[in-house]
Every structure is written in C-alpha cells, then in structure tokens.
Amino acid sequence: MIWPGIIEAYREFMPVSKRTPVVTLQEGGTPLIPAPRLAAEIGADIQLYLKFDGTNPTGSFKDRGMTLAISKAKEKGAEAVICASTGNTSASAAAYSAQAGLKAYVLIPKGKIALGKLAQAMIHKATILQIDGNFDTALTLVKAVADKYPITLVNSINPYRLEGQKSGAFEVCDQLKGSPLHHFLPVGNAGNITAYWMGYKEYYKRGIITSLPKMLGFQAAGAAPIVLGRVVEHPKTIATAIRIGNPASWKQAVAAAAESKGQIDLVTDEEITSAYQMIAGLEGIFCEPASAAGIAGVIKLNRSGYFKSGDSVVCTLTGHGLKDADFSMGISQKPQSINGEFEDLVKALGF
Ligand code: AN7
After folding, report:
1. Among 92, 158, 196, 278, which is 20 to 30 Å from 106 by CA?
2. What per-residue confidence (pLDDT) applies to 1?
3. CA distances (Å), 99 to each of 16, 25, 70, 194, in order?
4. What pLDDT is recorded for position 213?
C-alpha cells in the first residue's frame, strides 16, 4: 500500500468531509525504531522506541498538523495563512501553502532559527518577516493580525493543527499493537503533548487500546515556564525550536500530564546535547537538538529509578538533525585533511 498521508490514513478520526480538498505531502507513516543500544548505554532495562518524525516531508512533526490546517484553510476559501515560528512551523506552513496555492507569511525571531528551517521557508516562497523579539512576541502579533484581518492563523492554537498531530499517537499504537506505558517528548509551545494525549484518549475511547500511557514532557531549563509555573520573559536554550517562554497550550499540557499521571520536567542544554550525540552515535538517528530533550528526560528519570524492568517507552524525535547542521558541526570531530597519496591514507587509517 502507498501511504496516503494522515488525513486519508485516519479519515474517520479527522474533521474532514468529502468536500475538503486534501492538501498532502504524504506526511506521517513515520518509523518507530527500537533503540536497544541507547537503552543499554544508559543502563535502562526498558523497551525503548524512537518515533522518528524527522522523516516527515519537511523534516518535522509539524507536517501532521499542517496538512489538516492548510486543507481546512483552503476549504473555507482562504487566500493567505500566517504563523509565528521557531522554524519548523514556518517550514511546514510554507511547503503546504505552496502546494495549496496559498500565500504564506511567517514571523520569526531574528537570528534564532536554524539555517535549514529558514532555507525551507525561503525556497517555498513564504514571505518571511523577522523581528527583534522572541517567539512569544511573534505569536502575540500574528494572533492579533489574524483576529482583525482575513488571514488564517496556522499556529497550534488553530484546532486543526492538533487534530492532525494526534495521528502520531495513533501510529504509535498501530505500530506497537497497543499503548506504550510511557510517552516522552519535548515541550515548547506545548501543542504536541496536548495532541498526543488527545490521540491516545480517542483510541482508548474506541477500544483500540486498553490502557493509556503516562505523558512525559521536557522543557529546556532556560525555557521552562510550565515547570517554573511562570512566564519566562527571555527564554534561552541551544534547542532553538523550544525557545518559548509562554506556551499557547500551557493549560492543556499540564492537564495531559496530570490526567495521565505523567509529568512535565526540565533538562539542561548539556543534557540535551549529550542525549543528541548518543542518539546519533548509538542508533544512527540524526535528530535536531530540541528533539533530544525527550531522550534527555528518559535518561534523567532512569537515573532516579523511575522505570520498572521491561517498561515500554516511546520517545518522539520531533525534527531532523539536518535542519541545524551548524549545531552538530560545532560539537563534532572535524574532518582530517590528508594528501591524496596512498601512503597518507594508510597512515590515517592506522594500518
Ligand atoms: C523540533 O516551529 O514551536 O510543544 O514554531 O520544532 O508542540 O511546540 C516548534 C516546536 C519540539 C515543540 N521539537 O513542540 C515552531 C515550534 C521541535 C519543534 C517542538 C518544536 P510544541
């Protein structure tokens, strides 16, 4: 079967009708990869799986929500969409708008989004406006504009975004043939943890799964408003995707953690970087720094004796590492230069 994208794959769970023009890049259907080497390295006796959403068409989980948000925008006759973004939402909005024939406007914090994401928004011909402010300011601005003018907001406060993103939970359950015990993921604007929890609850209600996972969300220590219980005016972290101080889905994320008996916690930039290197070095998966916050969370909770032997643990890796190659290059071993001679090569190889 050719994977049709999340709207067709889960049509009965999606708010669409026959009249909805489906705008899709065949997003979703992403791999759930066992990570036994990583689990062994951290000394965790768990069944660990990585839901690698970096394999989506624009390289992040945002495509799951964007296919629906853009399809619904087109259905109601919108001509333009707008979003604020730390990068991935703008890349996804730009790509899906290109296919839909809509104008896309994106507001980003100047100098604070990864190069690959900016490149994506640019090549898909979005109009890019950068501000001397952070994501939170950008989101406030685009909300105000969309309230007043005929332009559709495609940030995750647009309910169709979360309706699409809940497909991540459906896929995990379909792949595992049941629910995992624990679901880890990074938290920025807090939409994805909210969406996963919606998805798990829908499958549970339908009797497709018979238990629910604990939802475990991780913020970066310098951008951890939910953990601290207050807005962070100047969020700071190397994980630029989650450099957010006032998440839109704050309350829903707290509810997801509480209802599922999970938690929202924080990890430091050092812990994120170390997890990021371990995922790449031990499992062959290149995710972006923000995505590694979930695994940094697995490592942190494992250290405190959180897991029972054999627990099933899923961690969503939200975005692809190639989006932020600058960051990976900065912490990786540099290429060696050798003369183009056989002897030099032999020497360099240690023979
Ligand atoms: C790779 O693109 O907010 O908690 O504007 O790009 O649902 O916000 C991105 C967020 C995690 C956090 N991992 O998810 C944006 C944006 C990656 C991300 C998150 C983001 P939410």
Report:
1. 196
2. 81
3. 18, 9, 10, 27
4. 99
Ligand 1, atom 1, lies closest to the CA of 319
Q: How many CA atoms lie within 13 A of 253 on its CB side?
A: 29
Q: Answer whether 89's CB lies under 8 Å from 56's CB.
A: no
DSSP letters spanning 311-343: EEEEEEE-BBGGGGHHHHHHHSPPPPP--SSHH
Whole-number mean pLDDT of the chain?
Answer: 98
Reading phi first (left if > 0) and then psi (alpha if -120 to 50, else beta), residue 269 is in alpha
Q: Which of 55, 85, 88, 295 to mutate to test the pocket of ligand 1 (most atoms within 8 A of CB)?
A: 88
| CB 241 within 8 Å of CB 235 | no
| Ligand 1 pocket, residues with Cβ under 6 angstroms | 60, 62, 85-89, 156, 186-192, 241-242, 288, 290-291, 318-319
Q: Give the confidence band of 190 by pLDDT, cuts at 50, 70, 90.
A: very high
Taking the centre of ligand 1 as the mean of its atom positions, its distance from the CA of residue 272, in whole angstroms, is 15
Record the tokens describing residue 97, joined without a space.
Answer: 């708008």
pLDDT higher than threshold 90 for residue 62: yes
Atom of ligand 1 nearest to the CA of 244: 3
pLDDT at 60 over 90: yes
Q: Which of 86, 117, 130 to mutate to test the pocket of ligand 1 (most atoms within 8 A of CB)?
A: 86
Q: What are phi and psi of 158, to 5 degrees?
A: -70, 115
Residue 12 in this model has a pLDDT that exceeds 90: yes
